[in-house]
Structure formats: structure tokens, C-alpha cells
């Protein structure tokens, strides 16, 4: 048995379709240590959500499997909390009650009512939502809803946090603010996280490793990039950091040029393609965040 905390071992999956079986993933292998923050990045439709759904226990692999903390994953469970792009809060419950529902399923037998209340409030505070905990989802912004979704997941004290484009539906500034919050929380709690993202900067800023997937069908792990940047990380300081920009360019290069299966010979990057990756990097707008309000961040043009 593997000694990693979370081990994805030889995972393949075939979906039945009217045109016959569709093999979305082929032999995905990934070993994750406790407390690691992993981003999954790859072209649309390559199979990132499928990997996450298999780890969540929502899909069953056709071959291979997932082992978490020595136990094989074969169904969904509270030790693997999922945060989706579209904050899946129950609309008739307040932020507090949404978190409470999850906390009750995990801690009903082990916590008193007072302990549960403190626990819920602590997690809402962690995501800076304590001021609006008695509001319903239709009374708060998208960014605030996503904060509640993260609080709900964290309050379950999961062994692994699975995030499927958690900030994908948010505007750039709200997204930046939530990324900063997530880094702070990660610093404090040291969660094991797998996050899907399409955002190269988000991946480099937050991750210990970036797992880049090849295009499907039969997608697999194409390349893994170690992000050796000290923490805590500060986005504005990193904007001019050559190491940060090197990692960023590596991911862009993979997405632009090296997205075929690993056993397929790669083309040598053309001068044009390298130039394109470089100019995309240069064209990136630099954002500065002023002091955040209790709701959402304020903007100062940089
Ligand atoms: N239940 C299913 N039945 C049939 N095909 C599926 C099913 N789920 C996923 N697929 C197919 O598997 C492939 C991978 O899908 P998946 O949603 O995992 O990709 P993704 O990388 O997360 O995409 P995106 O970045 O666009 O969200 C796609 O071709 C998709 O159509």
C-alpha cells in the first residue's frame, strides 16, 4: 500500500455513451502528502472534474482507485468536502444554518450544542462572514456565498478539501480577495487541498504543486510542477519575482504546447509560440487591492 496520505492509483474511467464507451481518463497516478495544496490545470473537457469526482466518491473508476489515509474511497463521505463553482447553499437557510447542517452531520454525537455554535461561528469568522451569518443566500453577494461554501466545507474538518473552480464565477477582484483568504486559512489549518482551476496565476500563487493534465480523451497527468516559493506569499511582491514568472511561463508553455499525451513526441516550441506566451504574460493587468471592506474588496487602479 502507498505511504502517501492521498493516493490516486492507475485511475481510468469509461463512460457509456450512445456511440459506445468513452474513455475519459487513462491511468491517472498522483500521490499527495498531508497538508499539500495541489492545483489541477488543463484544457476544458480534459477530465479535471472527473478526477475530483472520483476522489469525492461520486464516480467509480473503471480501473484503479483512490486511497485516503489508508482507506479505499468507494463512496462520498464527509472526510472529503467539496466546494463547487456555483456555491451550492440551500436558499431557505441562513449562512449560519447552511454551515450548521453540515456540522451536525459530522459532529452531532461528539459536540454539545454550545460547542457546535462556537465551531460554526469560528468558521464563519475564518472566512470573514461573521457579520452576515444570519443572512440568506439571496441577501449576500456571490463572493460572500462562496465564502460560506468554504466555511461549510472547512467546518466539517475534512481530511481533504476538493475545490472545483471555486472562484471561477467571481469577478477578478473578489477572486483575488478570496484567494488571499484561502492562503491565510491554509497557513493556519494546513489542509490537504485539490483545486481545479483555469487560472494560471491562481495555480502558481496558491499551490505547492501544479498537476497539468493532457488533453482527452484518455487524459492523464502530463507534467507536475513543484512551486518552490516561500510562504506566506504576497501577490504584489510576486508580480515582479522572476521565479514566480518562470513557473507561470512553464504552465502557459504546457497549456500552449505540451498538452499531448506524455508518450507522444513533443514539437519543439516555435519562436512565435514562445513569443505569444511571453506577450500574454506581459499583457497581464496588475491589480492592487486597497483595504477590504467587510463585504468585498475595494479597488485601486495600479
Ligand atoms: N457522466 C458522464 N458521461 C459521459 N461523459 C462524461 C461524463 N462526465 C464527464 N464526461 C466526459 O469526460 C470528459 C471530461 O469531462 P470533465 O468534466 O471531467 O472535464 P473538465 O476538464 O473538468 O472540463 P472543464 O474544464 O470544461 O470543466 C469530457 O469529454 C466529458 O464530456
Write structural notes for this entry:
α8 (242-257) crosses α9 (271-282). β9 (209-213) and β10 (221-226) form a beta hairpin. The chain is globular. The protein has helices at 48-56, 95-107, 113-126, 142-155, 172-189, 200-206, 235-238, 242-257, 271-282, and strands spanning 6-17, 20-32, 37-41, 63-68, 71-72, 80-83, 160-164, 192-196, 209-213, 221-226, 287-289, 299-301. The chain is α/β, with parallel strands linked by helices and 302 residues long. The strands form 3 sheets. The protein has a 6-stranded mixed sheet with strand order 6-7-8-3-9-10, sandwiched between helices. A 4-stranded antiparallel sheet has the order 2-1-4-5, with helices on one face. The chain is 35% helix and 23% strand. Adenosine-5'-triphosphate binds at residues 15, 17, 22, 24, 42, 44-50, 216. It is found in: Cell membrane. One of its GO terms (molecular function) is ATP binding.
Work out the strand percent.
Answer: 15-25%
How many helical elements?
A: 9
The radius of gyration is 20 Å
Number of strands: 12
Content-based structural category? alpha/beta
Give the neighbour order of strands across the main sheet: 6-7-8-3-9-10
Attached small molecules: adenosine-5'-triphosphate
Contiguous uncertain segments of 5+ residues:
264-278, 280-302
User: Shape from CA axes?
Assistant: globular
Overall pLDDT confidence: 86
| Helix percentage range | 25-40%
Q: Strand count, sense and closure of the main sheet?
A: 6 strands, mixed
Q: What is the first-to-last residue Cα distance?
A: 51 Å
GO molecular function: ATP binding; ATP hydrolysis activity; nitrate transmembrane transporter activity
Main location: membrane
Membrane topology: Peripheral membrane protein
Family: Belongs to the ABC transporter superfamily.
Amino acid at each position: 500500500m502507498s505511504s502517501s496520505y492521498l493516493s490516486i492509483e492507475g485511475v481510468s474511467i469509461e463512460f457509456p455513451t450512445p456511440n459506445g464507451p468513452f474513455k475519459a481518463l487513462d491511468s491517472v497516478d498522483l500521490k499527495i502528502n498531508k497538508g499539500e495544496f495541489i492545483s489541477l490545470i488543463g484544457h476544458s473537457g480534459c477530465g479535471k472534474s472527473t478526477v475530483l469526482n472520483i476522489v469525492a466518491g461520486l464516480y467509480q473508476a473503471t480501473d484503479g482507485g483512490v486511497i485516503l489515509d489508508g482507506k479505499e474511497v468507494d463512496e462520498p463521505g464527509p472526510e472529503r468536502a467539496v466546494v463547487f463553482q456555483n456555491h451550492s447553499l440551500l436558499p431557505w437557510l441562513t449562512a449560519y444554518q447552511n454551515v450548521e447542517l453540515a456540522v451536525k452531520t459530522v459532529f452531532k454525537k461528539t459536540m454539545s450544542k454550545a460547542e457546535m455554535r462556537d465551531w460554526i461561528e469560528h468558521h464563519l469568522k475564518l472566512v470573514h462572514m461573521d457579520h452576515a451569518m444570519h443572512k440568506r443566500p439571496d441577501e449576500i453577494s456571490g463572493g460572500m456565498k462562496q465564502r460560506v461554501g468554504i466555511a461549510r466545507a472547512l467546518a466539517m474538518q475534512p481530511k481533504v478539501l476538493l475545490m472545483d473552480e471555486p472562484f471561477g464565477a467571481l469577478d477578478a477582484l473578489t477572486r483575488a480577495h478570496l484567494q488571499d483568504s484561502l492562503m491565510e486559512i491554509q497557513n493556519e489549518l494546513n489542509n490537504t487541498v485539490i483545486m481545479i482551476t483555469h487560472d494560471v496565476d491562481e495555480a502558481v500563487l496558491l499551490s505547492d504543486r501544479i498537476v497539468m493534465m493532457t488533453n482527452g480523451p484518455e487524459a492523464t497527468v502530463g507534467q507536475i510542477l513543484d512551486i518552490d516559493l516561500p510562504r506566506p506569499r504576497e501577490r504584489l511582491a510576486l508580480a515582479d519575482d522572476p521565479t514566480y514568472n518562470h513557473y507561470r511561463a512553464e504552465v502557459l508553455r504546457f497549456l500552449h504546447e505540451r498538452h499531448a499525451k506524455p508518450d507522444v513526441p513533443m514539437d519543439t516550441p516555435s519562436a512565435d509560440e514562445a513569443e505569444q506566451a511571453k506577450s500574454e504574460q506581459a499583457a497581464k493587468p496588475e491589480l492592487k487591492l486597497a483595504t477590504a471592506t467587510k463585504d468585498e474588496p475595494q479597488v485601486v487602479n495600479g
